[in-house]
Automatic annotation (TrEMBL):
GO biological process: alkanesulfonate catabolic process
Top-level division of the source organism's lineage: Bacteria
InterPro entries: Luciferase-like_dom (IPR011251), Luciferase-like_sf (IPR036661), SsuD_RutA_monooxygenase (IPR050172)
Ranges of residues in domain Luciferase-like: 36-228
Name of the protein in question: N5,N10-methylene tetrahydromethanopterin reductase
Alphabetical UniProt keywords: Flavoprotein, FMN, Monooxygenase, Oxidoreductase
Pfam families cross-referenced by the UniProt entry: Bac_luciferase (PF00296)
GO MF terms, alphabetically ordered: alkanesulfonate monooxygenase activity
Length: 298
């Protein structure tokens, strides 16, 4: 059992579909009023999706409080120096409401079809580590920075602007080496239940802790976010993330107090507005109360 005692955060996953714009804006309004995050997937090769960063900029412009995070940014199709500048620019414009989450890449045929590289798992992992280092340099406020990597380079560039707040870098990774790297060098972890079920999380989180400890960092400083795709219903089921508000409350509370996950980003079927409202109005306050009660007993 691992509970890092971090404040809970909640968000909603919004699909960047041109066919769902009015629905997306309605979800963003709910999130701005009651949640902490809006997560936006970044699949530039998907013809049915809007460009993620243009969409995120629009959501930021239509909201006042909620933070927005790419969930996760498609690194192979974005130069990390330009990506860092884009994220910092939106952070400045929005008054500090952007975090940056990076992914090593997947769907390589689609990436190649759009002019991107095809990378092996090892190459993708090394490129991701380099991108984190490039991003830190681009946010450093130094007069001039250089970086010589196998995949990315900076050659006397003048970085800026700096983010408006201490912007975090989250990684959507799952392998033990990258998890240990995250513990030593990144600020947050963003897996999804569709790839990593709850029973896989403790061992993965332990790798993050190991990397943090080896680097002299406090593991409790690292955000542990979880994309939870499911459905809130009126009848109990035997399936996780598909059932009543009480079932959802128990599932998320257990994740918080037993596995240390502290941020939950809900993905409703077809971005259903009623589901999103139930999550924000019924599940979130119930989980906050249950976790506070559990922590008070220890």
């Amino acid at each position: 059992m691992t509970d890092y005692g971090r404040d809970l955060q909640f968000g909603v996953f919004v699909t960047p579909s041109p066919d769902l714009l009015d629905n997306s804006y309605a979800i963003a309004e709910i999130a701005d009023d009651q949640l902490d995050f809006i997560g936006v997937q970044d699949h530039p090769y998907q013809k049915h999706f809007l460009e993620a960063w243009a969409f995120m900029a629009t959501l930021l412009a239509r909201t006042d409080r909620v933070r927005v995070v790419p969930d996760v940014a498609n690194l192979p199709l974005h130069n990390p120096a330009v990506l860092a500048k884009t994220a910092a620019s939106l952070d400045v414009i929005s008054g500090g409401r952007v975090e940056l989450a990076l992914g090593a890449g997947a769907f390589w045929d689609a990436i190649v079809a759009m002019g991107g590289p095809r990378r092996t798992a090892g190459e993708a992992a090394r490129a991701l580590r380099e991108a984190v280092e490039v991003t830190r340099l681009m946010w450093s406020g130094e007069r001039s920075v250089r970086y010589d990597g196998d995949f990315y380079g900076l050659h006397g560039v003048h970085p800026g602007p700096q983010p408006a707040h201490d912007m975090q870098i989250w990684l959507g990774v799952g392998g033990p080496k990258l998890l240990r790297y995250l513990g030593g060098h990144a600020d947050g972890w963003l897996p999804s239940n569709s790839y990593f079920p709850p029973e896989a999380l403790p061992a993965m989180s332990a790798q993050i802790d190991r990397g943090a400890t080896d680097a002299g960092r406090d593991p409790s400083t690292i955000v542990r976010a979880y994309n939870v795709f499911g459905e809130i219903g009126d009848h109990e089921t035997g399936d996780r993330f598909r059932g009543t508000v009480s079932q959802w409350t128990e599932d998320l509370t257990t994740l918080a107090v037993d596995t240390g996950m502290d941020t939950f980003i809900f993905g409703a079927p077809d971005d259903d507005l009623t589901q999103t409202r139930r999550f924000a109005e019924e599940v979130v306050p119930a989980v906050r109360t249950a976790v506070a009660r559990s922590r008070g007993r220890h």
